[in-house]
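Whiteboard transcription, Tuesday session. T.W. wrote the structure tokens on the left side:
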């Protein structure tokens, strides 16, 4: 019998004897100290604690656990620098049982298996730890609770760090100038966040709601990393859905969800990756995690999209795009150097309704018509994208009409009618009022197959009186309802329609991927994706939609996805966010948005910018200069009619867009120039000297008059870094990186010689990581391949591996 099997047998033996009485005693012992107090996320009272009982290596992060499984050290193993926030240690893994957090009091290691247990509480968690070199995975392979106890949630951490310089909320990475610590959720059910129900655990009340000062919305609800007054936290959880649960949304409204049948509903299988790395190698580690753990790995020009310059390419977002004017639209796009047309005829896209997502007449009325539109766009040298509203369900969609509406629409709490409701009644009476609480959009109820809007509600004696009913909403029919009939609150979306539950989310993921596969559409926005969370399923709902669509979509290269929210569970699949509109959103906010993008290893984007024939060249080039300073693309909101009517003036504006983006994408601007571009008080004019290769850059004053002499801007000749690579030591973790002088690099390859055995070159990032196996002096040549007509570059390197 192996060590892992013996550990399982021992834990089962004492677990059976623990009993419910021991659980009640243990729950009192391990109650969480209120947030902010000493030990608020730390070891249980009375637990034996030592400085270090066990050490885990996760890349360059050394995680020290005491004998109770409490994290007592987070150390940069290269320098010995500690990063555990003072007085803020917590259990590496714990459970919520019967509504209370219960922490382990003992941890044992048997090979790759760590058993966290609390004998008095009667639980054990077996965690399989696998060292992958640059990162380590932790997977809960067995979770056993006490007899009769309800094991509701498995919590990872939080890991409390003293790092505050950069907190990448969505990606789950915190870093300073010298070190980065990351936590990535590895399954859709392992949510990179903290449950809204447990505000008193894990210092959750101290975690900033919107540290990045985003205008679109706070992201803390879906974030693996959080900022606190004393540092930062990294955390994840998995909720048990083997039975029906009531989950709390961000506003505290309780929504019943589940159950999920089979293994999908269990917390066993919850899995995260942890790592420590130098900040500049962090993208390489993240790439390795995504590849190694089979997470979504979309590419642009064959390169992982998180490092691809093409991920920030600009779009022409058109309000009047139709199949018939695609050639004209393509001509305008190419005049601006833009390769994507994007259809946005209204707030929801070229669809008859959101939900079933059938094309309207603008793009042919069906999938075959849309495929024809895509082919026409391709023949004219551009790709086609369309807008979506995720799982917003329109009130005229077949999920709602004709009656009866789909039973899988998301519903909140429910109650029973205490009196019959006749067809013409405008007041109803319920036996409870929880469903009427604030915290969801609109005031809509469902009784049987009828939707009813209401104006107000109040408690009268033992019943709740709901008044101001508007009957037969959303195409339903007014009908009589008997006393005792179930009445449910409808979870509405921000536009007044419904939201799909998990079954409908799966339908929509299947429908969207079918559309992309059948038609060849190459871009979409998951606008309103937070609705998949508002259904009660949190970031798991978002992952089910986004990752489910990605998994079924055949095209993995060149497909651009935007989003209204960036959650930790969808970070891998999504290309970018592009929030706000210059002119409506302040430039200050655009800079804040781009700071968030940079912190989360996302491409820079200015947002969706209004572009009209009447716009002044001075104004357009001012925006393009900000984009160049941030290395940010744009979604240019325009119409074919307006730009075509603008004649030569439009062509001048479009050419300005082309020149600025062309120079930005090849890295023609110096760092000093980009710093000047980020000054919003400056104005600029860029003129092509040799198309695609050389430009003249002139600073202007507010009237458009020249300031100083023009500057020459040139496309750099691609070169690889020539600095010697640092030496390595046999069997020790190694990391370094080769770089180029242009963002147009799309591939790094070893074309002669070889890296030391045990090291690997990441083709997408240029990072070199691994553990060399023996002393050697390895010589090799790296080739860097480029787009935009730039030549390839090569350089010779040596890595010396010492004993």
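and on the right, the sequence the group agreed on:
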């Amino acid at each position: 019998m192996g060590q892992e099997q013996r550990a399982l047998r021992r834990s089962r033996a004492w677990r059976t004897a623990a009993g419910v009485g021991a659980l009640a005693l243990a729950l009192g012992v391990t109650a969480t100290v209120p947030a902010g107090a000493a030990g608020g996320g730390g070891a249980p009272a009375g637990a034996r604690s030592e400085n270090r009982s066990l050490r885990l290596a996760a890349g360059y992060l050394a995680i020290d656990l005491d004998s109770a499984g409490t994290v007592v050290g987070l150390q940069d193993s290269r320098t010995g620098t500690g990063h555990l926030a003072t007085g803020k240690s917590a259990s590496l893994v714990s459970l919520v049982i019967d509504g209370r957090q219960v922490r382990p009091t003992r941890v044992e290691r048997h090979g790759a298996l760590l058993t966290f247990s609390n004998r008095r509480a009667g639980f054990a968690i077996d965690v399989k730890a696998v060292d992958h070199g640059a990162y380590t995975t932790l997977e809960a392979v067995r979770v056993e609770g006490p007899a009769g106890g309800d094991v509701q949630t498995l919590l990872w951490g939080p890991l409390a760090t003293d790092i505050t310089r950069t907190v990448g909320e969505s990606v789950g990475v915190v870093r300073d100038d010298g070190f980065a610590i990351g936590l990535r959720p590895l399954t859709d059910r392992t949510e990179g966040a903290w449950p809204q129900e447990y505000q008193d655990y894990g210092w959750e009340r101290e975690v900033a709601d919107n540290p990045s000062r985003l205008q679109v919305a706070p992201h803390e609800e879906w974030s693996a990393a959080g900022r606190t007054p004393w540092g930062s936290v990294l955390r994840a959880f998995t909720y048990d859905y083997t039975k029906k649960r009531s989950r709390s949304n961000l506003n505290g409204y309780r929504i019943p969800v589940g159950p999920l049948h089979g293994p999908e509903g269990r917390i066993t299988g919850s899995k995260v990756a942890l790592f420590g790395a130098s900040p500049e190698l962090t993208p390489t580690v993240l790439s390795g995690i995504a590849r190694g753990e089979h997470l979504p790995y979309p590419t642009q020009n064959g390169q992982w999209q998180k490092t691809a310059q093409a991920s920030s390419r600009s779009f022409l977002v058109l309000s009047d795009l139709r199949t018939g004017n695609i050639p004209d639209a393509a001509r305008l796009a190419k005049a601006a150097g833009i390769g994507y047309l994007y259809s946005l005829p209204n707030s929801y896209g070229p669809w008859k309704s959101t939900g079933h997502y059938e094309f309207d007449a603008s793009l042919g009325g069906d999938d075959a018509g849309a495929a024809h539109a895509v082919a026409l766009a391709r023949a004219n040298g551009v790709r086609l994208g369309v807008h979506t509203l995720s799982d917003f369900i329109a009130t005229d969609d077949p999920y709602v009409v004709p009656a009866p509406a789909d039973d899988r629409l998301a519903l909140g709490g429910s109650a029973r009618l205490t009196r019959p409701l006749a067809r013409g009644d405008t007041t109803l009476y319920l036996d409870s009022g929880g469903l009427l609480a604030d915290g969801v959009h609109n005031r809509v109820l469902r009784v049987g197959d009828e939707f009813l809007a209401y104006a107000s509600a109040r408690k009268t004696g033992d019943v709740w009186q709901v008044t101001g009913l508007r009957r037969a909403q959303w195409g339903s029919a007014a009908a009589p309802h008997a006393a005792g009939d179930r009445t449910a609150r409808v979870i509405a979306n921000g536009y007044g329609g419904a939201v799909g539950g998990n079954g409908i989310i799966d339908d929509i993921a299947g429908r969207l991927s079918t559309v992309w596969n059948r038609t060849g559409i190459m871009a979409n926005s998951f606008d309103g994706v937070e609705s998949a969370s508002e259904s009660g399923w949190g970031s798991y709902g978002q992952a089910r939609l986004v990752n489910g669509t990605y998994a079924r979509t055949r095209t993995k290269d060149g497909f651009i996805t935007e989003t209204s929210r960036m959650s930790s569970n969808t970070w891998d699949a999504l290309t970018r966010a592009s929030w706000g509109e210059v002119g409506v959103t302040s430039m200050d906010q655009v800079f804040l948005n781009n700071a968030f993008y940079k912190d989360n290893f996302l491409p820079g984007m200015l947002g969706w910018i209004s572009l009209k024939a009447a716009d002044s060249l001075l104004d357009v080039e001012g925006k393009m200069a900000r984009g160049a300073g941030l290395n940010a693309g744009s979604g240019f909101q325009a119409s074919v009619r307006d730009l075509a009517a603008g004649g030569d003036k439009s062509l001048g504006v479009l050419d300005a867009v082309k020149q600025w983006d062309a120079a930005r994408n090849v890295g023609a601007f110096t760092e000093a120039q980009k710093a000047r571009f980020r000054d919003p008080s400056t104005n600029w004019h860029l003129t092509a000297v040799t198309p695609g290769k050389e430009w003249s850059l002139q600073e202007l004053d507010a009237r458009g008059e020249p300031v100083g002499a023009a500057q020459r801007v040139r496309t750099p000749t691609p070169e690889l870094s020539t600095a010697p690579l640092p030496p390595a030591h046999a069997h020790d973790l190694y990391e370094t990186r080769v770089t180029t002088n242009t963002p147009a690099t799309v591939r790094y390859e070893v074309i002669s010689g070889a890296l030391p055995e045990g090291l690997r070159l990441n083709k997408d990032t240029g990072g070199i990581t691994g553990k060399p196996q023996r002393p050697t002096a390895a010589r090799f040549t790296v080739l860097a391949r480029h787009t935009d007509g730039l030549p390839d570059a090569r350089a010779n390197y040596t890595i010396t591996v010492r004993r």
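Someone added at the bottom: The radius of gyration is 28 Å.
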